[in-house]
Design brief:
binds zinc ion; 2 domains; mainly alpha; two-stranded antiparallel sheet
Length: 172
């Protein structure tokens, strides 16, 4: 995290002041983005006061603040990402809705998709299709044994570069 800060001793006063301004801007950004509670806001202000009062320890303090801001922003971004994911899940359309909007059902794996050509090249389509055909041939209670066996053969083939046997498409 602090790779930029490791050479602060060799920094010119100009570089140090640039770093100070960066840290300050990060703090202000943080305050804007995160809408901190009073305690966090006070902490940020205290940090700035420390910077101002104890100029001797300024570099170390800058490093600490920059790190704290980075860490907090990482957490904030991660939280935002999770929220977006949750939102997307809620937006997921049902098969009926998709079909109404021009999607088609894949005969191989039964999924409803918009781009059939592209979908037919995916692993999930190939493997589901394979499982379906296997279930017809060997019966539902036997299928897991066969799938495990096929997976072992696939990974053996890939490890030993026998790509012909590592490819699901050969089992079409
Ligand atoms: Zn499919």
């Amino acid at each position: 995290m602090a790779q930029n800060a490791s050479n602060t001793e060799t920094m010119t006063p100009r570089e140090q002041s640039t770093e100070f301004m960066d840290a300050l801007n990060s703090l202000l950004e943080l305050i804007e983005e995160l809408k901190p509670n009073d305690g966090q806001y006070l902490q940020a202000c205290n940090d700035l006061k420390t910077l101002n009062d104890k100029k001797v320890v300024i570099n170390q303090k800058i490093i600490q603040i920059v790190e704290r801001v980075r860490n907090t922003r990482v957490v904030a971004e991660h939280t935002a990402r999770l929220t977006r994911k949750e939102h997307r899940k809620q937006m997921k359309r049902t098969d009926t809705e998709k079909l109404r909007h021009g999607a088609v059902r894949c005969v191989r794996c039964d999924r409803v998709v918009f781009n059939l050509k592209e979908h037919r090249t995916t692993y999930v389509c190939h493997s589901t299709g394979l499982h379906k055909r296997l279930a017809v041939k060997v019966g539902k209670h036997e299928i897991n044994r066969y799938i495990n066996l096929i997976n072992s053969i696939n990974s053996w083939a890939e490890k030993t570069r026998r790509y012909k046997f590592g490819n699901f498409t050969m089992l079409k």
